[in-house]
Amino acid sequence: MDILLIGYGKMGKEIEALAVERNHTIVGKISKTNASDLSNYNSTNTDVAIEFSEPDSAFKNLQYCVNNNIPVLSGTTGWLDKKKEIETLTKEKGSTFFYASNYSIGVNLFFQLNKQLAELMSTQKQYKASIKEIHHTQKKDAPSGTAITLAEGIIEKSDYKNWSLEEKSNEIIPIEAVREDPAPGTHTIKYASEIDDIEITHTAHSRKGFAMGAVLVAEWLQDKKGVLSMADFLKDLKINN
Ligand SMILES: NC(=O)C1=CN([C@@H]2O[C@H](COP(=O)(O)OP(=O)(O)OC[C@H]3O[C@@H](n4cnc5c(N)ncnc54)[C@H](OP(=O)(O)O)[C@@H]3O)[C@@H](O)[C@H]2O)C=CC1
Ligand SMILES: O=C(O)C1=N[C@H](C(=O)O)C[C@H](O)C1
């Protein structure tokens, strides 16, 4: 596969190493310094773009790919208020757009476990849910995209209505975002009562799981069109419920 990397930071470099190991070719690398190159990019030899950039640049990058029919998968967090726009554009243009807040298979199993636990706890009103995420100090957004997906999973299966970094009420899941080094990504869901606590935690030991997931999705995406997500990918792998 010929891959265009949009964003060549910690994740872009990790993805490059794994993609080359799997015999793919990196045909272009776009970062902040050469961002304007994307608007003149000749996509003839590009099978897929992998976009891990920054909250402020993701929308423009994805808009370019979708408008120019370059199949694209993105992992950038902190820009999702505009995701619907990209999805609408993808349908209009007949292009391919895949998004996941977390590409790690382990985290996606954890997402399923989180929903199962939320369903189980939904009748146990003496327990109060909360989420804690820990990431490295270079991270630009808070809370993490993964923490937001976890909160959405709980909201789907319970009476919680929203999440917040500050606000406290019975209808809101509080999220605590901790920044310390080194921390590739740790997420904990806690149900606390006066009598006891129940906790589940996923700890990433490195960025390898995120990068491997992104490369596997890029390979899977080859014959696909439309708006796709991890649910579609995991269904094909038979690891969803
Ligand atoms: N979904 C998932 O599984 C995961 C998602 N992430 C998310 O991915 C994103 C990237 O993470 P990470 O690699 O750690 O971050 P880094 O800060 O290490 O890298 C960001 C990269 O984006 C580049 N960039 C900045 N502006 C633009 C632009 N306009 N066009 C193209 N590239 C640009 C930067 O360029 P320069 O080097 O010149 O500054 C840099 O290379 C974050 O949003 C993070 O939350 C991270 C891990 C897993
Ligand atoms: O910025 C990171 O590093 C990560 N970002 C993603 C997120 O915001 O959830 C995924 C992972 O936790 C690492």
UniProtKB/TrEMBL annotation:
It catalyses: (S)-2,3,4,5-tetrahydrodipicolinate + NAD(+) + H2O = (2S,4S)-4-hydroxy-2,3,4,5-tetrahydrodipicolinate + NADH + H(+); (S)-2,3,4,5-tetrahydrodipicolinate + NADP(+) + H2O = (2S,4S)-4-hydroxy-2,3,4,5-tetrahydrodipicolinate + NADPH + H(+). The keyword Amino-acid biosynthesis applies. GO terms for cellular component: cytosol. This is 4-hydroxy-tetrahydrodipicolinate reductase. GO terms for biological process: diaminopimelate biosynthetic process; lysine biosynthetic process via diaminopimelate. Residues 1-103 form the Dihydrodipicolinate reductase N-terminal domain. Its EC number is 1.17.1.8. Residues 106-234 form the Dihydrodipicolinate reductase C-terminal domain. It comes from Fulvivirga lutea. Keywords: Amino-acid biosynthesis, Diaminopimelate biosynthesis, Lysine biosynthesis, NAD, NADP, Oxidoreductase. Belongs to the DapB family. Pathway: Amino-acid biosynthesis; L-lysine biosynthesis via DAP pathway; (S)-tetrahydrodipicolinate from L-aspartate: step 4/4. GO terms for molecular function: 4-hydroxy-tetrahydrodipicolinate reductase.
